[in-house]
Amino acid sequence: MTGDPLYLDGVDLTDVGIMLIKVLVAFTFLLVATMFMVWFERKLISDMQNRIGPNVAGPWGLLQTFADGVKFFFKEDLRPENADPLVFRLAPYISAVTAFLSFAVVPIGGSFGGGASGTVTIFGRETFLQVADPPIGILLLLAMSSIAVYGVMLAGWASGSKYPLIGSVRASAQAISYEAALGMATVVVVVLAGTLSTHGIVAAQSGGITRWFLISSGIVPFVVFLIAATAELNRPPFDLVEAEQELVGGFHTEYSSIRFALFFLAEFMNVITMSAIMVTLFFGGPAGPILFGMTWFWPTIWFLLKVLAFLFVFVWFRATLPRLRYDQLMHLGWKLLIPLILFWLMFISLKELRATYDWNWITTYGAAIVALAIGASLLLAALRAGNRAYQEELEDA
Amino acid sequence: MGYLTGFKVTFKKLFEERVTTEYPKEKRPKPPRFHGRHVLNRYEDGMEKCIGCELCAGVCPAKCIYVRGADNPETEPVSPGERYGYVYEINYLRCIHCDLCVEACPTEAITESKLFEFSFSSRSDAIYTKNELVVGDDGLPQPQPWELWHQGDDLATSGWMRATASAGNPDYQNRVGWSGELGYGIRTPEMGQHDPTLRPKSDKPAEENVQPGDSH
Fold it and tell me: pTM of the predicted model, to two decimals?
């Protein structure tokens, strides 16, 4: 199966069995991880706010999410009179399904170091520790994160209520703005790795920390990706979509019962998936030293630890940063992140091209610096003009 | 790096000590002047202190007290004076525990204990009648089935009264200005407000389900 992700040679029962097991494991893992992510977030944020947090249901309140889930199931499922019946019901599923799907292409284990190709053997078959490895894995991730916006957008629109509508309009504008920065930060990694397959990207990073794209791409793409991902996830400080002080509950104001729970699930699942993607793109995926025994076991542990670190970072953001105003959000996205990552993408591509075609150092980087200076001055002029117009608008208002 | 200072603050909080008291599991000692459920006191000879003057009802901002006085029966008087509290009801769905009734009472008949853990399943239970409010023959508050008394809840009641001189100074001036109570005698003075070293230490941590009076 290793070299045959699309099953061109046909499928037999073992393939189906392996696939079923993988899907089941990934599904269960995601559900359980989401459950504990909710607990983790609530516990950690209360620790950061001098509170105690959930501590009644189960040891250290571990079963709190489970209790909440059970409660959601027994709540009345309300639907506003003005809501569009079909779309209103469909929207939560779009959110939840895309959240599940994007995790499918993330490699969660397998040893890549020392010539190993990251495969494990199940039932005598060599296979990757990821549900699927399509040749366009990264594109699938980007597509899924875009489609997830449909869930939010349709939910707000179909609710037939003003606050959800405002929330969902904000969501789509925000997602479109930050998807550009997110996508270009990903492109930097793709340029470096030379492949769109997530497995290929992880394989390209094998062989020590210095090979991780975090270092070799110069950290900037990672920072941009982290900020854009936070915005893409609608997490604080970019949670304008559900700013409760302004919009009640944002796009899910009118949702109750298990439909609300699905949004909740999708949101937290996306946090996990996005952390996993960041680990895959910049932190070598499951790469890490194999300490003793069980060679297939350690990469998964390293992967989970890295993901956990990012989950911590997301909660830390939420505990620390106040929510951005809408214009600040747009300024940050369009005037800072996108130009920055554009320049960085140009620089990295040039570096790769120079290495490939053995161009002259001085002419290459000289031309780059000239182009960069022209671009930067044009951009700064544009920003200054825009800012002046904005200030005048403020004074008029 | 001013942008990152905030992250340091939130990270430090992770290791700080929590100040939360997890209430039903652990209970903090109550302050000495805690306002809780009322009791109607008796003199040491068993006579009721209430004279049915309705000053408490008049001063009550929540209008939760209902009093009707009546003339004392000549053969077996209830209170030492001319009249006594014939009907005395407090509606605890309205009471805000401001203690104004205690301050208004000319005979120190009504005082507040420290009991606050009581909840009712019916409105009629929430209206305490005189039979429930007045202390028993031993001078101790009568616990109701829905009340959770702790040790010391009936002690140190009406501290404000026992902290002041009869002249109204905020300091106790070695002259008792209050009458004795059945079951407790003349309560000890609260040594005034000006010198904090003279103030009584706060009560011991509460214990579960102690009946009033167990501490003596």
Answer: 0.77
